[in-house]
Amino acid sequence: MDTMKNMDGSPKTSIPEMMAVLRSSSDFIQYGNSGASGRFWISYFRTLVDSKILQESVLSAVTSGQWNDLDELKQTVPVENAMVTSDPDVMKEKLLQGFIMITRSEYGKSCLLVRVSMEKSRQVSLPEVEFSVVGPKEAFVESIESNIHLIRKRLPSEHLRIKEIHLGKLTSTKTAILYLENIANDENVRSVWQRVNEVEIDNIVDSSLLAQIISDNQHTPFPQHVDTERPDRVVSVLSEGKIAIIVDGSPQVLIGPSTLVEFFSAFDDYFFNYIVASFFRIVRLASMAFSILVTPIYVAALNFHYELIPRDLLNTLVSSREEIPLPPILEALFLELTIELLREAGARLPTKVGQTIGIVGGIVIGTASVEAGLTSNVLLIIVALSALASFTSPVYRMSNTVRLMRFPFLLFAEFYGLLGIVFCFCILATHLLRLSSLGRPYLEPIYPPRTADMKDAIIRLPFSQMFKRPLQLRTKQPIRFSKKKAEKKQDIDE
């Protein structure tokens, strides 16, 4: 007799072998029982199933109902997700997902699998990273079913498509790809599905791991997918033609394709007047540039270009550094690394202790370093403002990238002055020009220049002007609404 084999050529596990492996775990339960239709066997992991559903819905129907075979029993059990199979691999997979297995004998060749998994997750709460004063106050949780519900509730469209796949050879993590079929570009959908489907890894425990694997360029500090914890933001980008990826166990949803300017756009910008929102966006962009460049410019000016500093300011800088034994570069690196140490300590310690370390530690170390003559008070102010400016990015991953960018700029400023800063900027610009997100330009609409997409990039125009979807997405429906109707103002007597 030929041995049954899997698709990869390996021999299939027999049912007795499978049960022997599962019984080695202390939380696996298997026992025989009798009912109105005779004797049956039930197997399950007690830590994965809901005992209330098992007792009240499944066992009551199995013991009291009349059934001759498993197909009849399937119709009797009042649980939606049930299936009859004779494949040992399917049995093992479903048992590990919270199903119970019902057979006629201890090692029955076919079985009925019924889902009675225990669903435990925290309640929907306030956003912690993307909190806004105005607008919705709901955030994603670790349950993929709850997250899809939050999206479906806000986007009750028959065109919303959800494709599910399990990733990770060990974790078998449920992952869902969401898009609007009548809007999203088919090429983008195929690209995302192909990349996710080809993921080869043993475990996926969070969406951030998946984001690194499916990125166009894994050798860059710049994030290529926006991750958000806000359902309203996901619904908004889905209506633009983008694609969302949800990973079970992660409260962050990935969005793509993404552009650089999106990482400096907070979703609560749309809850304010376009003038106010545009001002805040410009402030964020200016803050990022300030955070990266201000300390390198300080080092370059003191080393090479002190003649460019106004005399009054130069006197202040000289007097603040007259007793400092360290050169500007070491002084700057000392303070920058101190700020990074305080950030990491505050992030790793418990919340209340971390806040105390961040505030008290910054004050004590800053004051002590100035009094000890290790750093100047002027540079201390500059580094503190630079650190504060880096927090203005609405996306945490981009703020980490900005923190990292300061160090290569500092080194170039030390060796080549302002010319080194310009050279480093050219390297950075070249790198950004080569980046893409799901095959779409990362710097769009700045390059390639697309005037039509500038309406919601560095600044935000009124909603009446945003009647077209982004050109880079190549959507099936480029027009969002009628521009004439949006701009029409009715008279009071109409």
Question: Mind explaining what this structure looks like?
Answer:
- It is a single chain.
- With 494 residues, the chain is an alpha+beta fold.
- The protein folds into three domains: 101 residues, no CATH class; 115 residues, no CATH class; 169 residues, no CATH class.
- It has 15 helices and twelve strands.
- The strands form three sheets. It has a five-stranded antiparallel beta sheet with strand order 1-2-4-5-3, sandwiched between helices.
- A hairpin with a 5-residue loop joins strand 9 and strand 10.
- Helix 11 packs across helix 14.
- The longest helix is centred in the last third of the chain and has 39 residues.
Helix content: 40-55%
Helix/strand class: alpha+beta
Whole-number count of domains = 3
End-to-end CA span: 85 Å
Count the helices. How many? 15
Tell me the series of helices and strands, N- to C-terminal: HEEHHEHEEHEEHHEHEEHHHHHHEEH
Low-pLDDT residue spans: none
Shape label:
elongated
| Mean pLDDT across residues | 87
In terms of DSSP E residues, the strand content is 5-15%
Query: How is the biggest beta sheet arranged?
Result: 5 strands, antiparallel
Task: Give a quick precis of the structure.
This protein has 15 helices and twelve strands.
